[in-house]
Amino acid sequence: MLNFIYKGLIAETQKIKGSFTFWFTIVGSIFIPFVFFLVYFFRYESFIPAESINPWVNFLNSNIKAIAFLLFPLHVILTVAININIEHKANSWKKLFVLPIKRENIYISKLIFLLFQIFISLLIFSISLFIFGGVLGFFHKELNFLEYAPDFLSHSKLMVRLFIAILGIFSVQYISSLFFKNIIIPISMGIFLTIVASLITSGWQYSIYFPYSFPMWFFLNSKQLVIGNIETYYNLTTSEITSLSIFIIVNILGIIMFKYKTIK
To answer: Is pLDDT of 168 > 90?
Structure first.
């Protein structure tokens, strides 16, 4: 099983190498940091920090808020849909299903590859933040980016939490993309539910259990986590635990459904 999953990951990597999916991962990850870079660069007078204030805090938080509330969920929705649609367009399922390979191995290898792609997106996002911040400090020294250091450890912890928070959305989109050949269906569903989440997250207490609200709750909870003013379980918030739980349950069901998937 492990050997096939490894080979599957290599095959998936080769499949998207140089493709639109490959470039979408890179461009989609640096889009928001680049936008903030331009805003800071051309309107730097508005962002000159007060004395003894670390400018990295506001810069990083602004970027994280932008992706957590809308753009990273949309990035995940599109990444999953575009990747799985490669198989639908090429009608590769028929070829895969006639091979002497367990269907659960196919399912898991694609799942792991897509999770790795999402992880890489967050990594590129984080690296681009530090690069753009450094460039801003070089050209506009009054912004003080070169006078202070970003808190790499705290930022890394936030990225891990955001990754966990996105697992609920990821699993739902993965299943829907596998079972709907028309790419418009999972994308439209994901966008609609993300918009719904943006409307209900702050005003409905039970939105903490709604998968598409988890990234938004991640940001809303992040400041409370810093001062220890929020209840956690095993150092995870309720929405993060729910996200992990949904990921596990949905994918167990997904493997069972995928084993009996019929191809027309």
So the answer is: yes
The pair of three-digit structure tokens given for residue 21, joined into one six-digit string: 């999916």
**Three-class SS state of 182:** coil
Rounded CA-CA distance 120/127 in Å is 10
Spatial contact of 167 and 244, defined as CB atoms under 8 Å apart: yes
- Measuring CA to CA, which residue among 26, 133, 11 is closest to residue 75? 26
pLDDT at 10: 66
CA atoms within 13 A on the CB side of 118: 31
Of 118, 260, 243, 258, residue with least CA distance to 178: 258
pTM tops 0.90, yes or no: no
Sorted by sequence, the CB contacts under 8 Å of residue 73 that are 6+ apart come out as 166, 169, 190, 194, 197, 212, 215
**Overall average pLDDT of the 167-180 stretch:** 94
Pick 172 or 223 by higher pLDDT. Answer: 172
pLDDT of residue 227: 42
Sequence letter at residue 105: N
Q: What's the CA gap between 194 and 51, in Å, rounded? A: 39
HSE (CB half, 13 Å, CA atoms) of 125? 30
Return the H-helix or E-strand segment holding 123.
helix 103-139
